[in-house]
Amino acid sequence: MNTSDPQIQQTFGTARKFVAGYGALGVVVLVVDAVLAAAGKEPTAFMWGRTGGVLASAAVAYWLTGLAARGSRSAFLRVRIISVAVPVAIVAIDLIPGALPAWFIALQIAGAAVLAPTAFLLNGPAPRAAFAAAR
Q1: More exposed terminus of the chain, fewer Cβ within 10 Å: N or C?
Q2: Contact 111, 90 (CB under 8 A)
Q3: For residue range 75-127, what is the model confidence (pLDDT) as tens digits?
Q4: pTM of this prediction?
């Protein structure tokens, strides 16, 4: 594994920024949930669970991206999976009719859109070559 290449490090740095943006939007959703709860318009348990799931996945993806940048092949594989699966799952769940309010769907899809470029970055030829299996 050769993750010391400046291009690879720049790719991981950019990926971490996208993951951080995804996490920041998750925090925005958490704040809106909390404000609504304080105003007596209790968000549903489903909304709280989705918010917690987004924040947890953002924290794990950020941590894994850092580990991958330092050469962890298993972290690299996991963050590649997260960066593809999470945006798809977010959009799929948001398509359930009537399950979530429009503002929540909009913020969740915005978060998915911010995370999605990470999948393209980390599945590119240079990062994959850096973690090519030794023969």
Answers
A1: C
A2: yes
A3: 999 999 999 999 999 999 999 999 899 999 999 999 999 999 999 999 999 99
A4: 0.91
pLDDT tens by residue, 57-71: 999 999 999 999 999
C-alpha to C-alpha distance for 24 and 16, rounded to whole angstroms: 12
Closest to 104 in 3D by CA, of 33, 45, 18, 27: 33
Distance in angstroms (rounded) separating the CA atoms of residues 127 and 42: 44
E strand or H helix that includes residue 124: none
The residues, any chain, with a CB within 8 Å of residue 59's CB and separated by 6 or more, are 23
Domain ranges of the chain: 6-128
Question: Cα-Cα-Cα-Cα dihedral of 31, 78, 120, 84, to 10°?
Answer: -60
Helix (H, G, I), strand (E, B) or coil at 133: coil
Nearest to 65 by CA among 17, 23, 22: 17
CA distances from 28 to 24, 50, 51, 62, 120 (A): 6, 13, 9, 17, 25
Q: How confident is the model at residue 13 (pLDDT cuts 50, 70, 90)?
A: very high
